Amino acid sequence: MSRKWIPLVTLVGALLAGCAANTARQTGLEQIEHIVVIYAENRSFDHLFGSFPGAEGIAQASAEQKTQLDIDGTPLPHLPATYSGGKPLARFPTSGLPNGPFRIDAPPINGRMDEVLPSPWHLYYQNREQIAGGKNNKFVALADVGAWVMGYFDGSKLKVWKWAQEYTLADHFFMAAFGGSFLNHQWLICACTPVDSNAPATVKPTLNEQGNLARKPGSPKSVIDGPVQLFDGRATSDAYLVNTSQPPYQPSGIAPAAGNLDHADPAHHPAPPQTAKTIGDTLSAKSVSWAWYAGGWNEALTDGRREAKEKRTVIYARSAESPIFQAHHQPFNYFSRFAPGTPDRAAHLKDEADFLAATDAGALPQVSFLKPAGRYSEHPSYTDLMSGDQHIDMILSRLKKSPQWPHMAVIITYDENGGFWDHVAPPRGDRWGPGSRIPTIIVSPFARKGYVDKTPYDTTSILKLITRRFGLEALPGVRANAGDLTGAFDFTR
């Protein structure tokens, strides 16, 4: 009887494929059928969760990490004023406070969670220098708001604090990239930094011999006298986009050119269409359903397509009736695969109203990203903390009532630290990050209950979890030393 031999290469390939397919079953991850990522804004871990029981908080900060240095590298004798537009802000009397962190919601500051408060700058080069190799003692010197970066809240008043108490709080989770929202949203979906080979010289920084931003003539020698003034830009000298750059497609912060209402006017230098591989590409390649949901998306599409001469401020305005839509918080809108008119745009870029309807109907895709509108993002300077906290609580409550809840994992995290101090040194990374520590909560029937997960993570850990669960191609920028969030789960119950 003849025997049919299987080539060795084929056999090995089949065995490897089988191992990959069985990985989820071996770990229990196959029990998670739906992953939801809620992406809030601009708060460091110490700023909100610095007094959370069992977490590494402000009490564990060293004297060196608390003691902020002046611009010249010497310890500040006391904290400076809180600045706005380069001038002291009398509403918040921080000048003369002891050098170190202080409570915002306590005397003498008496700030409230339901009021709009100052926003420190949160920029690539500044964050990198503020971290100071893990000492985290240059936050005040490299800020535009003086002492305000050292402010923190009693987070126990927050509704998300209660969710963290019930489920899992990750207390060593870091923003993937140094700096601000634009870059960290990109790292959330592609673990990559956008490029613009035609970035004009006017948007590039001037660096000193140490590779940090050069100071402008007349910049104060001490932050006690005023905030430092720097030669910054939105691109690096080798044409990577690191600070806020507007998308090439509407909705964009740049109005359309005449005759093409779907695109931002190229004369005002939006980011060029990007072509790097995203988590959306890898999900679609495996036919895993997914969507990016954004608060105010439908309204912004209409408003963004108005010509420049028309009123385009209804959706983007910082007024009580506006969702305060932020175009640079919509990362897939930078990629050519999701350009206006493409099938992928129609299939995957949706409004928060669609998310809520799908939640209630038990019809969410396998992977959902939810970006609240600016009104509910918790971003300082244009919204308050309480509104966003209540909004996230509403979303979590509805998710928990969803028919899909028994097999769901929800990750609530922040895009970046908003410029606020955090004392924990980020893990060793690369040119782009990771940056400062941010709060992250894992809510799921499978999440460990009342648990503080001390595994080192960064934003790319979310990509690693999604990739592992659904057997996807790994994205190159995902960091090998970042965990995959499985430490937050217990599948034995």
Give an overview in words.
The protein is of the alpha/beta class. It has a domain of 323 residues: Alkaline Phosphatase, subunit A (3-Layer(aba) Sandwich). 23% of the residues lie in helices and 11% in strands. It contains 12 helices and 16 strands. The strands form 5 sheets. Strands 11-10-12-1-13-14-6-15 form an 8-stranded mixed beta sheet, with helices on both faces. A hairpin with a 2-residue loop joins strand 2 and strand 3. The longest helix has 20 residues.
The general outline is globular
By secondary-structure content and strand pairing, the structural class works out as: alpha/beta
CATH top level assignment of the domain at 28-62 and 153-196 and 245-488: Alpha Beta
For the sheet with most strands, the description reads:
8 strands, mixed
CATH superfamily of the domain at 28-62 and 153-196 and 245-488: Alkaline Phosphatase, subunit A
The count of strands amounts to 16
Mean pLDDT: 93
Rounded to an integer in angstroms, the radius of gyration calculated over CA atoms is 23 Å
Residue share in helix: 10-25%
Low-pLDDT residue intervals, each spanning 5 or more residues = 1-25
Give, in order, the helices and strands. Answer: HEHHEEEHEHEEHEEHEHHEHEHEEEEH
H/I helix tally: 12
CATH topology of the domain at 28-62 and 153-196 and 245-488: Alkaline Phosphatase, subunit A
CATH architectural name of the domain at 28-62 and 153-196 and 245-488: 3-Layer(aba) Sandwich
Strands of the biggest beta sheet: in what spatial order? 11-10-12-1-13-14-6-15
Beta-strand percent range: 5-15%
- The rounded distance between the terminal residues' Cα atoms is 51 Å
